[in-house]
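Quick one: structure tokens for this chain, please?
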Amino acid sequence: MSDLDSDQPLVYRHGRGSDAAHRRDAALYARLLEDHAALKRESEPLPNGIRAWTTSENPELVRVLQAHVTGMEERFAQGRAIRSWDPLFSALFEYRDALTVTYRNLPDGVETVMTADDPKLVELIQCNDVTLHQFVRHGAEASKHRSPVPDWVLAAYGEAPPGD
């Protein structure tokens, strides 16, 4: 059973968007999950974070990916969380001011570098990398589950099912 199939209502720690920008971002995300098999993600650990490349041979999907990244960059800058029912994403948005994130469009996708000075936040970044790999590998099925998180995030948010 996925977290989204639980009898418990989801708790959105940072609200739930319903404006035009949120609907646009959700549509882009859904398209990437739907066409996940046409995406490729590689990453390399850095001492203070990760460098990752998400690419596709499909030019239309590259445009969708780049638009998604632009939307997420804007949401991150504005503190407009996504998946705030998921402790990983809640923590990423709560600690966003302590993270350095850079994006670079490539002809076939996007390069992302995410770093932090705090070793605890480096753990968080690494869990985010694992989660994004899962989205690329498994698509919508992976998006139904909570993301892996460091123990300190579990301690802060608890281990109760969504809604508790």
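Strands lie at 39-46, 49-56, 99-106, 109-116.
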